[in-house]
Amino acid sequence: MSEREWPPGVGRRSPRRLHVDPSEVVAWDVVEAARPILGRRTRSSLFVALGAGESNAVIVDVLRAVATRGQHLPSSVVGRIAAWLDGYAGARDELILRDLFDRVVETATLPSLQSHEEPDGIRR
Predict the structure, then answer these.
(1) Which of 16, 26, 38, 105 has the fewest Cβ atoms nearer than 10 Å?
(2) Which domain of life is it from (predicted)?
(3) What are the DSSP calls for 63-74, one per residue?
């Protein structure tokens, strides 16, 4: 019996388009860009959160880590974060997120993502 004679739903299926949330892409990019300052355990936790669909929380967590350490992210990633942040226009968290983002952008004149390991496994 040829493939064309199979009952509907059996045999070759048409490819399905997968929907990828743009914030997931940004979150993966942010984690990868911040890799030099994130310890192994922290990265693992972030990857678990990404797998659970918590991409917005991951972006915020990494921005906090970068801002706290006075580091910066590559301009290509900063641009994607800025676009992601526009999705928060008018939201109650917008001002907090923009302040955090501004702290990361202000550090752009400092050396980029220097790494050193701390006892808790988080690089600072």
Answers:
(1) 16
(2) Bacteria
(3) HHHHHHTT----
Return the DSSP state at 123.
Answer: B
- Distance, in Å, from the CA atom of 27 to the CA atom of 50, rounded to the nearest integer, reads 8
Spatial contact of 63 and 30, defined as CB atoms under 8 Å apart: yes
Q: Which of 114, 97, 119, 100 is nearest to 41 (CA)?
A: 119
Q: Which residues contact 75 (CB under 8 A, 6 or more apart)?
A: 108
Domain ranges of the chain: 20-109
* Tokens representing residue 123 in the block: 């690089």
pTM: 0.71
- Cite the beta strand spans of the chain per DSSP E: none
User: Distance between CA atoms of 98 and 16, rounded to whole angstroms?
Assistant: 37
Q: Does residue 33 carry a pLDDT above 50?
A: yes
